[in-house]
Amino acid sequence: MRLHGYTGSSLAALHVSRSQLLAVSGNGGVRAWKSSHVKQVVRSSAGDPDWLPTRVPNLEGVVVQEIACGASFSIFRSDRGILMSCGNGSDGCLGHGDYDDCKVPRIVQSLLELEVTHVSAGTTHVAATTRDGDVYTWGCGDKGRLGLGHDEGTCVPHLAKLPDGARAVSTRCTDDGTFVITSDRKLYACGSNRHNKAALSEKYGLSVDDGKGGVVSAEEAHSFLLVKAPAVQGAVVDAAAGVAHTAVLTAEGHLFTFGSNTHGQLGRQTSPGTPPEKPSLVTALQDCVIRALSCGDNFTTAVTKDLHVWGWGKTAEGRLAQPMSKSGVAAKSGVAAPIRLTAVEEGLGSLKQKMEVKALTSRYHVTLLAVRQQ
Q1: Which of 78, 125, 307, 344 is packed most tightly, with the most Cβ within 10 A?
Q2: Which pLDDT score is estimated for 51?
Q3: Residues 6+ apart with CB under 8 A from 364
Q4: Contact at 8 Å (CB) between 87 and 102?
Q5: Radius of gyration for the alpha carbons in the chain, expressed in angstroms and rounded
Q6: Residues 6+ apart with CB under 8 A from 278
Q7: How far apart are CA 373 and CA 40, in angstroms?
Q8: Biggest distance spanned by C-alpha atoms of the chain
């Protein structure tokens, strides 16, 4: 279904959390939708005007290029590399040096002299990449998700060191961890490694560089560690993670998944030789060129070069746009192999072949896709 109430210019970026949805238009303007239940935000019928998009205050004259939503806070990156944040400050996620709430976006002062080129947000933490290839993190530090060598939180951005002088290009914050993609397309991770969702366990044939003092266990890492998965290292262009699984996209357009497969969210068969915890190719899509991927809580979605939309994993609450039974629940509780999301493709209309993907994002049970006519 189409996003309710949006009639502005084409969307350049989307991000969704449990309580809000943010969108950036092609001219750098920001729209926000607030909801106590995200599924109300994306309904297609006319309804309560409170759900109509409105501009975020204090951003007048600011050209926003990137947005990120946490559980109850928002981060904005301008075209000048300046970060602004607002929302709930209880975990220090706003980076303002305190734990106070902030109703309107305010500059993250400690990063003002740096040019931020990328920002991402987990449920309760933030990671930012600078022009110099450095990574700064702040917020909740539980399970070592900040990559600072410990599990303590902070309300001020701190430099997180990468091993071997690696230069970061972008970060991907998960609910309880962080991934870093470097200039040489390698992947680093810190935080929770439950179900080996950060691919840091040697048990599955992956050796780990401890990065000078990083705390490593089967469950968590407190410093950024190089994930030595030969099939993806040196070729990583994107990564996404759910509650207990991860998907990695390579430059060739191939998709690898690892972690829990309880709901079929890995999209591949497992065996003693290729257990769910070991990064492995999603063979059902190996002949496709994947252009975008995202992970919700227990499902995964991907869009190919020819704008075919695929999904797999948990289907409850409309996650994969599957037919509903008479009782109002999905006919299947989970899909273990990639399927075409025809309902989504039909929504793109007859001009699908003349469109390009601008943004694909998933969080919890919601997926949002933004396309633009070429």
Answers
A1: 125
A2: 46
A3: 16, 17, 18, 38, 296, 297
A4: yes
A5: 20
A6: 196, 204, 205, 206, 258
A7: 27
A8: 58
- Give me the pLDDT at residue 122, please: 94
| Residue corresponding to tokens 């106590």 | 36
Q: Give the C-alpha separation, 293 to 309, whole Å.
A: 10
- For residue 364, what are its two tokens? 């919890």
Q: Provide the pLDDT for residue 373.
A: 59
The list of the chain residues with pLDDT below 70 reads 1-11, 18-19, 35-55, 203-218, 228, 322-332, 343, 345, 347-359, 364-366, 368-374
pLDDT at residue 213 in the model:
47
Residue 242 contacts residue 248 (beta carbons within 8 Å): no
Nearest of 4, 85, 10, 75 to residue 38 by alpha carbon:
4
User: The tokens 């990083």 sit on which residue?
Assistant: 214
* Interacting residues of 219 by C-beta distance below 8 A, sequence separation 6+: 143, 192, 193, 194
Query: Cβ(254)–Cβ(286) under 8 Å?
Result: yes
Burial class (CB within 10 angstroms; exposed 0-12, middle 13-18, buried 19+) of 203: exposed
The residue behind tokens 């999904």 is 311
* Per-residue confidence (pLDDT) for residue 330, from 0 to 100: 47
Q: What is the 3-state secondary structure (H, E, C) of the chain?
A: CCCCCCCCCCEEEEEECCCEEEEEECCCCEEEEECCCHHHHCCCCCCCHHHCCEECCCCCCCCEEEEEECCCEEEEEECCCCEEEEECCCCCCCCCCCCCCEEEEEECHHHCCCCEEEEEECCCEEEEEECCCCEEEEECCHHHCCCECCCCCEEEEEEECCHHHCCEEEEEECCCEEEEEECCCCEEEEEECHHHCCCCCHHHCCCEECCCCCCECCCEEEEEEEECCCCCCCCEEEEEECCCEEEEEECCCCEEEEECCCCCCCCCCCCCCCCCCCCEECHHHCCCCEEEEEECCCEEEEEECCCCEEEEEECHHHCCCCCECCCCCECCCEEEEEEECHHHHHHHCCCHHHEEEEEEEEECCEEEEEEEEC
Q: Cβ contacts of residue 230 below 8 Å, gap of 6+?
A: none
**What pTM was estimated for this model as a whole?**
0.87
